[in-house]
Design a protein that fits this description.
By secondary structure, the protein is an alpha/beta fold. The chain contains 11 helices and 13 strands. The strands form 3 sheets. A 6-stranded mixed β-sheet has the order 2-5-4-3-1-6, with helices on both faces. α2 runs antiparallel to α3. It starts with a strand and ends in a 5-residue tail after the last helix.
Length: about 300
C-alpha cells in the first residue's frame, strides 16, 4: 500500500469553475490530473513518454501520469479542497481502466483513478509530512513514511477496520513532532496551572522560551520544551528570574535530563505528570496528536 498526494489545480474549460471540478470529482468518485493529450492506457513509462511529446515541457506530464498509472487498489491519496481543508481518498478503480468522457476533458481530469472520498479536517488534523508535500508544484506524487498513520486515520474517520494496522509498540514521545509536544505542554500549563498565552509572543523568536504566559494575578510564566535527548539546565534560565522575580520558568524535555539548582521559581516537568494529564484531558488534545498517541497503544 502506498500513499500519494494530488493537487487539485486543473485548468478547467471556459464556462466551468474549480468548484465545478471539485463537485464533479466527489460526485463521480474520482480524482486525477489533466494532460488530456495523453490518451493511452498502456501501463508503461514508454507509452506515456511517447504521447507526452505533445507538450513543450514533457517532464511534469510524464511524472504526473506515471504517478497515476502506479496507483493501486486501496492506495490512499491526500488532497485539498482549498488551502486548509484536507481530504483522504481510497483508490477503488485504476487509471488503466478509466474511460474519460467529454466532461472529464472539459474539467481537465481525464487521467483519473476512482476513489472513495473522506473529509479529514484542517492542517492540524493532518500529518506534517503530508502538509509539506503540497509545497512542491507537482500535480501528483508519492509520500513515504506516512503509510501507517494514514491507514489509521482512514479507519478512525470512516468508522471501519478496512486496513489492518498494527499499533506501534513504542513510546509515543518518540513519534510525536516537536510542535505536538510543545502544544501538549502549553495545554498543561493553561489547564492545570492557570496560565494563559500572550498570543503575540508565540510569533517572537525567543532564544530560550516558546512564548510568554500570564495568570489572573498578573504573574508571568516562561515555558521551554525540548524533544529528543536535549538536556535542560536551570542555571541557563536564571536571567529571567532576576529580571522578573515573581515569574516562573517551566522546563520540559522528553529526555528528562535535568540539572537543577535551588531556585523555587524554576520548575521541571516529568513525563509521568504529562501522561497523567493526557489521560485526564484526552478530549482537549489536538486530533492528530490523539491519533498518534492512540496509535502507540497508550490509551489501551
Amino acid at each position: 500500500m502506498k500513499v500519494w498526494r494530488i493537487h487539485i489545480k486543473n485548468e478547467v474549460a471556459v464556462g466551468y469553475t474549480r468548484q465545478d471540478l471539485l463537485d464533479f470529482c466527489q460526485k463521480e468518485n474520482l480524482i486525477g490530473v489533466g494532460w488530456g493529450e495523453i490518451k493511452t492506457r498502456i501501463n508503461t513509462d514508454s507509452a506515456i513518454r511517447q504521447q507526452a511529446q505533445y507538450y513543450s515541457n514533457v517532464t511534469p506530464a510524464i511524472k504526473a501520469l506515471n504517478a497515476m498509472r502506479k496507483m493501486e487498489i486501496d492506495d490512499l491519496i491526500w488532497t485539498r479542497l482549498d488551502s486548509s481543508h484536507y481530504c483522504l481518498c481510497r483508490v477503488t478503480g485504476l487509471w488503466v481502466d478509466s474511460k474519460p468522457t467529454d466532461k472529464h476533458y472539459k474539467l481537465d481530469v481525464p487521467n483519473y483513478v476512482n476513489v472513495e472520498w473522506l473529509k479529514i479536517g484542517m492542517e492540524q488534523d493532518v500529518p506534517g509530512k503530508v502538509v509539506s508535500s503540497f509545497r512542491p508544484a507537482a500535480p501528483a506524487q508519492a509520500i513515504s513514511g506516512v503509510e501507517d498513520i494514514s491507514m489509521y486515520i482512514w479507519n478512525k474517520k470512516s468508522n471501519t477496520n478496512h486496513y489492518s494496522v498494527s499499533k506501534k509498540d513504542t513510546n509515543f514521545w518518540s513519534v510525536l513532532s516537536a510542535e505536538a509536544i510543545e502544544e501538549i505542554v502549553l495545554l498543561y500549563l493553561q489547564i492545570e496551572k492557570g496560565y494563559h498565552i500572550f498570543s503575540s509572543t508565540v510569533k517572537y523568536t525567543f532564544p530560550k522560551y516558546e512564548c510568554q504566559m500570564v495568570n489572573d494575578k498578573g504573574y508571568h510564566a516562561y515555558p521551554q520544551v525540548k524533544s529528543g535527548s536535549v538536556p535542560l539546565n536551570a542555571n541557563d534560565y536564571m536571567d529571567t528570574i532576576k529580571d522578573d522575580p515573581s515569574s516562573e520558568v517551566f522546563l520540559f524535555s522528553t529526555s528528562e535530563s535535568y540539572t537543577k539548582n535551588n531556585n523555587k521559581n524554576i520548575h521541571f516537568i516529568y513525563k509521568e505528570e504529562m501522561e497523567n494529564f493526557i489521560k485526564k484531558y484526552r478530549k482537549a488534545l489536538p486530533t492528530l496528536t490523539c491519533h498518534w498517541i492512540e496509535f502507540c497503544g497508550f490509551f489501551d
